[in-house]
Structure formats: structure tokens, C-alpha cells
# Entry
Amino acid sequence: MKHLDVQNRRIENGFRLTRVGITGVRKPVVVQRNGRANHLTALIDVFVDLPSSQKGSHMSRNVEIITEMIDEGVRKDVRSLEDLAGSICKELLERHEYASYAEVRMMADYFLERSTASGWSTLEPFKLMARATARRGNGLMKLVGVEVAGMTACPCAMETVTHMVQEESPGLLDARKAPMISHNQRNITTLMIEVPEHVEVEADDLISIVEGSLSSPTYGILKREDEARVVLDAHRNPKFVEDVVRDILGKLLQKYSGLPDSVCVTVRSESEESIHKHNAFAERDTTLGELRAVEDR
Amino acid sequence: MKHLDVQNRRIENGFRLTRVGITGVRKPVVVQRNGRANHLTALIDVFVDLPSSQKGSHMSRNVEIITEMIDEGVRKDVRSLEDLAGSICKELLERHEYASYAEVRMMADYFLERSTASGWSTLEPFKLMARATARRGNGLMKLVGVEVAGMTACPCAMETVTHMVQEESPGLLDARKAPMISHNQRNITTLMIEVPEHVEVEADDLISIVEGSLSSPTYGILKREDEARVVLDAHRNPKFVEDVVRDILGKLLQKYSGLPDSVCVTVRSESEESIHKHNAFAERDTTLGELRAVEDR
Amino acid sequence: MKHLDVQNRRIENGFRLTRVGITGVRKPVVVQRNGRANHLTALIDVFVDLPSSQKGSHMSRNVEIITEMIDEGVRKDVRSLEDLAGSICKELLERHEYASYAEVRMMADYFLERSTASGWSTLEPFKLMARATARRGNGLMKLVGVEVAGMTACPCAMETVTHMVQEESPGLLDARKAPMISHNQRNITTLMIEVPEHVEVEADDLISIVEGSLSSPTYGILKREDEARVVLDAHRNPKFVEDVVRDILGKLLQKYSGLPDSVCVTVRSESEESIHKHNAFAERDTTLGELRAVEDR
Amino acid sequence: MKHLDVQNRRIENGFRLTRVGITGVRKPVVVQRNGRANHLTALIDVFVDLPSSQKGSHMSRNVEIITEMIDEGVRKDVRSLEDLAGSICKELLERHEYASYAEVRMMADYFLERSTASGWSTLEPFKLMARATARRGNGLMKLVGVEVAGMTACPCAMETVTHMVQEESPGLLDARKAPMISHNQRNITTLMIEVPEHVEVEADDLISIVEGSLSSPTYGILKREDEARVVLDAHRNPKFVEDVVRDILGKLLQKYSGLPDSVCVTVRSESEESIHKHNAFAERDTTLGELRAVEDR
# Structure
């Protein structure tokens, strides 16, 4: 039925398309890392561009590539979601001979072992995000991203409450020393870094950077004293979403001092405010170069 | 094309169906209440049952009824989402002559004016839920439901933290008087009551009952002192999700002492724990009669 | 800090609670089946009831059990999500000595190998649902459920369109033989069966029953001829959502003739209508006994 | 409590933030248009940037502005969601004196009257999207966007099926004239145009352009003959997602010939494939200038 290749027909007065492909493909993916196999359920989107003169993109080639690559993943020890995205991206340009651009996006739940203060071990859930983009003739760019749920306690409410308590009941507490109450809440923070193909950025490192920038990480298991410890830690380390984003930016500069200025960075922190029905949000879209500039970073 | 009524055909060896209908219908609805018009965007599902001998249900009649009733709503001063659901329910039985059961479900965002401690006025969002069910020959039952977002502060962590602070720094605070820190978070509580057609239950009252049973209601606008006030109030009124559900049950008994024992009540409270990535949840499914029984309620 | 067991305190004038627990716990689960390890990412809710005289439920015990059981799962060859839910359920009653009821719910993406007409192999995504409930002193009940996406083509529009084409252009087609056009769409069908602990129901069988009751199953990879085959098959097998539910009920009676009358069955089919912005829906909630009754099933 | 303005504190070694604000604010909005009041329930996000030397953004000012503007909206006959977004955007720069950038995003369900072929009137749901952005000292840019659900029938499967039927049963149908079967499905298409403040683009026009570029629009009410008409129309007008996007681009060029080359346009079309569990997707991100260039558009 070769003559029925409707997609391949020439058209006139067409327009180029930026992305044509498939979205919402669900596949089990195995990532081999440090001798440990991570079994992920990935949600995948893949796209190529389409020239103005061609009627359609061959969508079924996209699924063929995903299927082959993900089997290949099992055999070939894929190291990361972003490496897998990169391999699919290259193959997209191979098989869509008319395309000059390819893009792959992936997302998956991911788990890491954590320990509480008193030594309980708990497997904590995170989200991995990966993206690979390639322009024919140029190298591949890959994005490594993580989403981390944690906790923020508000520094502003803490001061106002202390002031209010002191006015109402002078001498009740020593505000310089006593940890003071505030509103605190679940916070969702996203960190994404885009680097050239052969530069390695570990998603696990990004997760650690985010966890270390919140008022406190959170844990599935918290026995009574561990719970009190997390609450105290968070209140001794109150943070606006602005603080969370800035602390992450500072840590990125230290951790990735060897990466080029052109590396793109996106950080977003959203606190599901306990005192409001809406969320507080802060974001920085930038490059390592901008962050390194002393005068206005 | 009457002969093309495929739905109406007789079949053999069929099975009765409990619910056949349409889901996800979106319509603007106007509810007239206390002289004020509430313009709601409702999400609507409607169903009838289907006897074992008939091939299909006439789905388009459902949409016709919704369309007529919602226009009628504009003209006839519909009092509430549940009254509208009830009217649609009756009409479903009229036009699906083969049906013995009809059910209508609705959900909509809803807004009420609230005031903060210092007098700021703020329009707060809630969710209304409504359901009407009718069995041919029997009366109509209607369900009035609300979803309210508010705040809970944990009573257990508060005691453990106080204890831990006193052990670490004896004399730092007077724990009998000083409000102490805890984790707090956004809480989503749902309250639903099912009553016979002519019994009136005001959704606004249900919202007030839920707001009064949380550690604190929450507000869109909170200037600095109002924010401190909400935080202090919540910590002076710490609540497990268990407490929230029980306090609502107690208030329902007082408020609805005139309603019959057979009235069904569902209360669910879910706290989006700031110290965990999962939620805490409590629920009671019951009747007013069970709640009124002294020995085991 | 045993004296700080706030949950354990006695209260007066309390109310029993139907379900108290945690929701939205995410865990990697390994299910061993027919010599193959299925790595699932499960979303888990667990609950126990709470007597009227006790202030709170010990939420952290729930997480401890999940953690231990899921590690145990790796070691002990858990056979299915519902068996795992059952084990957690029993342990909940062990450790919440005050509880008389326990309930566990799980959901996970799941994959099965399928072949297209021309022999392509494709890994298709489904959803598994599991629930276990136990009342102290009574046995365990477990629910096995699946969600399957497939395709329905409308039988009514097909006849009306044929009629319309024949009126407009008599003789254009031989309507008794030519497959005729209709609207078709993605359909999501859910099948759930609840059985006593030691009765085995295979989720894979339930998936096959649903796939065989749609106008056609759907596939990730469809080369040109396979795509035409699926489209033709679906149009030669047009189905209302009512038909899908009834065909599943009929197949359940055949497949599970050995199961007791008391077994509960829920079937729901929802077509995301291509000609409407809303969905068509059919449901039957019943028992095998009711389905077996000849006079009114 | 002015001295407690924690947000206003000077910090060292800070970083600029691109967006700081609140997300998920829900408000009822009234838009006056052609003498008709549209009551919308809007979901709103607002942001300003933050200089590197300032600790925090004053989040509560954002809510104050929204509240005032939306009340003002009632009084002042706001013409559109994007005009309201623009007004809020300007006020954000007024009250956040340290900000150089402001951004407002809104989304709401929206309804328009439509007629079926046989004259039934039906209120169809769409989504409105609006965005306004302002850089201090520069003018305002506003984005007008719509999301439309409709129907696509696949041109490729149609040809393959015809070929297959002719091979199996030669002479069964006159393929040059008979409409032939294919898979068809719900399609969600988004069209967004960004223009300077004083340029008017009507959301209703954008909705019409999208509806006219699908295989067929869809309707809530479809009596039997109208349903057949929609199905026939769609199959006589089969469309890939690529075709949908290109047809919209062509219509935009005609409709907006008077708008400057710099105007940004985004078109996305996603078909919820009835034969797959994943979606087909096409997108063009461009400017009117690029679309107008003859050689490579």
C-alpha cells in the first residue's frame, strides 16, 4: 500500500509546522545506575518539525522508535531518562528524513532512600523530567529536571506573630531564643538544567540541592520525635518561595562551577499556602552566565 | 427517520443497566437566592436506568432536558443547584418512559463574602455539589454538598515540640501559656447531606459549619496583622482530621435537630500534610439517627 | 515520649469514624506472576475505623506497615496488587488494636504485550485497581479491577448515515454489504470484581474480557494495513456503551460460573464522544446472583 | 507593624527573580460585550519580578489589586478577560514600585450559542485564555486565546480502508463518490494571538476560525438527522492535526491582514486518537511576519 502514503504527498501553499508528533505515550523504562536498576513508568511525548511542502508526518514511525529504543534500553543499560530521550531524538531525525528538528519529553515517578534524624529509613517519591532536542547537523541538548515536595515555614508571619504575642502578654516568651509559630505548608519545587549531550548532570544531585533549600525536607515515616525535629528544623529555617529559589541558584553556582555560561537553568517554587486557598510562587529562568555576573545577577 | 430508532429496539438476553446517560456537560446556571443572582458554571452528569429488554437509552433527550431546564432556570428563579437537579430528575422520568430511576449530579465553583479580623472584605471560593435521585412512584431525594478549603494545625506535634524545646532549653518558655509551634497545612473538607425533596438545607449553612470546625478558615486577603491572627487562632485551636469530622458531626446534630433519623450524612476531611508527601484523611458515612443514638454513635 | 501519645487519649461525647488513614502514598511495588516480575508504581490509600472514645488514629503505623509489607513484597513474591492490599489490611488490624475495620486501596499503571493483525508486537498500557477490606473476626474481601482504553463506533449514527446517503444518492452503495461510516471514539471501560480472600480472579482475564467487548481494542503501533483493519473491525462491530457493559456482563457469567452468587460486580463504560463535548456513560452495579436470575437480570 | 516588613529588607548576594506572585486565585468575573453580560469563573495567576537586593515580594498587594479590579470590572464594563488582565498588569507595576515587569494569566469556561443543521439551538462550552505582560516604560502586550473541542476524521485511514474494501469485495462501492469510513475522534485545538494593548482581537472570531478548520464542529444537542449530518460532513472533510493547524494559519493571514508582522501566533491541535491510547499533536509557534514570507513560511 505504498501508493497510499497520504502523509508523503506534496502540498502547495502549506506552512511549516514547529512540532508534529504524539503525546501521552506510557511505557515502562529501566534505568541502570550505580549498579541499581530503576524501573520507571514514563509518560512520553515525541515531535519532529514538518516542512511546508509535505502533507503529514509519519506518526507511526514515532511509536516504532519508542518501542525499539525502550527494548534497547533494557539491553544496553540506559543510564538516565535524559540519555534515553537523547537516543530517541537522534533516531527521530534518522527516520523522519524530511525533519530538521526533533524533540522528546519524558516524565516519571522516581524514588530515593532517605533517613530520618532517629535513623528510620524511608523511600521518598520524587518526579523526574527529561527533554532532549536536536537540530539536524547540530549537537543534542538535554534537559535534566526534578520535582521535589517539601515544606516551607513563612518568615514574615513568624515575626508578626512574635510581635503580637509580646504585645498581648509581655514577658511570656524570650523571642530571641524561642522558636516562634508561623504558617507552614507543602511546597513543590522544580529544578531544570539544560546541558549539551556529553555533559553529565545527576538528577539525584538536583534533588539533594532542592531538599537542602527548603525549610525542611519531608518524609513518609516520622515517629513522634522525628516529627518534632522536622517541625523545629523548619521553623528555625523559615523561607519564602523567593528564598527557596535563590538558595537553589546559589548552590547551583557552587556545584556546577565547571559548566559553561550558556547552560540554561529554570527554578520554580510553589507553596500551597496553609492560610490561603491560593499558592505563592517564585521562578527564575536564566543561564549560568547571568547568575555568575556580579553586577546584576 | 423514526424507523431508525436503534435505541428503542427489543433485545433478548439483555441485562438491566443501573445508570445510562451523559457525563461532563458544562452549562452556565443562575441561582436566585436572597435577592442575589449567583452565576455558576456547572459540570453536570445525568442518568436513567435501562430495562433488560431495550437496546439503548435516548441520550439526546438528556441534553434536551438540561437545555430546557437551564433556560427555565433563568426565567423561574431556581433557588439552588439541588432544586435544579431535582427538576431535571423528574423530567428524566417523564421523557424516558422506560426508566424507573433517574439521577442528576452537579458541581460548581461558588463564592461567599467573608471578613477578616481587621475588617477587610474578601470573596472566598468554595465548591457546591448537588445530587438528586428519583425512583418512579417514590419521592425525590436530594443531596446538598459543599467543599471547603481551610487550615489545620496538628495537636500531637505541638505537644511533642513543646516537650523537646523544654528538654533542650529549660525555662525558655512558659508552655502553659505560650502558643507552641506545630505543622499546619491546607485542609479540604467535604460535607454532604441527603434529604427528602421538600426539606430545605442551605449550602451556606453547611459551609459555615465546616469553616467553624477547622483550626481556622482561610482568606484570600490577609494584611500583616490579620495573617498573624489567623496563624495564632489556628495554633490555639489545633485539630486532627478526626477532630474536624467529629466537630462537624456535633454541629449537625444541633443545627438539624428537626430533621428525621433517616437523613444521610457524609463528612470527609483531608489534610495536605506539610511534613509528609501524602495526606491525612478521616471520614464518617452515617445517618442522623445513628449520630443521635447515645450508646454507640 | 510515650506520655505524649495524644492520639491514644480518651474523649467523651465523641463519634465513631468510618475511615481514618492516609491517602496518596506512592510506592514502587514488584508483583511476581508467571515467572515474570512486574514493576509497578502504586498509589496507595489505607484506612482503619476509630471508636468514639479515642481521640486519634496512629497514622504513622500505617506508613510503617506499607513500608514493611512492600519490602516484604520484594522478598516474598507477592502475586498481585490485591494480595498485597490484603496483607496490608490484615496487618492494619494487628497494629491498630482499637480498630474493627481496615481498608486498603491501590492503583497502578500496568502493561501487557499485544499483537496487531499483521504480527507487530506492542506493549499496551492499562490500569490496575485493587482494594481489600476486613472486619475483625471476619474474612477478607478483595476487589480486582482494571481500566481499559479502547474504541467504540456508534450503531445508531451508522444506520442514519446509510439512510441519508441512500436518499441523497440512490444506488451509490450496497448498504447491506458495505461497511458504513459512523462516529467512533476513545472509550474508557472499568471492570471490578469483589471476591473472598482465597478466590482467585486474574486481572489479565478481566482486561481480555473488556478488550473483547469493545468495538475494537486499540494499539500503540499500527502500520497502515493494521490501522485499516482496526477501523474496519470497529465499524463491523458497532457498540453503544450499553452494549459494551452488557457484553462484559455476559462474558463474566460464562467465565466465572464457579463463583458464588454473592460476588459483587461493577462495570462502567464511558465513550468520549467525537460528535459531542460530553461523554456517553453506562454502568451496572450488581452481584453474580442477580445476573444469573433469569426473570429480571 | 511597619517595622515588620520582612519582604522589604535589603539582602546581599541575592539573585533577581523572573516571576514572584500568586497562582490559582479563583474569582467571578463579569465581561460586558455587545450588550450582553458574560459571567465567568476565572482562574488567575499574577506575577511581578523582584530585584536581587530585596528579600521578598509583597504578595498581599497582588490579591488587593485583583479584588479591587474585579469589583471595578463590574462597575466599569470590562470588555474582555484580556483587558481585565491588562488593567491588573498596570496596577501591579504601580504598587510594586521595585518591579520592572508584570504578568497576569487568566482562564475561564465560556459559552456561545450555536445552531445545528436542522435549527436546534445549543449553548456550546469553550475555554478562554488571556495573558497580559508589561515591562515598565514599555507598552502592554496582551494575549487572546481560545480552546475549542471539535472532531477530526483521519484522511489516511480513509484511503487505506477504501483500498482494503475494494480488494476484498470488488465493485461493492463506488469509492469516488461514497463517503468512506475512517477513525474519527475528539480534538482539542488551542489558538493564541499576542498583540499590543490597543489592537483588538475578538476571542469569538478565534473560536469561529478554529471551528471552521476542524473536520466538523461538535454540538451538545444532535437529533438523529443532525448527528448523521455532522458525521457525513466530518468524513467529507477528513483532517490530520497538521491540516487543522495549517488551515487556521491560512485563515489568520486573511482575517488579520491589517496586523503588524511582529504579532505572535501559537496554534496547537491534539486529536485524542480513537485507534490509539495516545494522542496525535501538531503545533506552530510563529509570527504573522513569518507566515507572510512567501519563500519559507
Observations:
- The mean pLDDT of chain C is 92.
- Chain C touches chain B through 55 residues (CB under 8 Å).
- Chain C is about 30% helix and 35% strand.
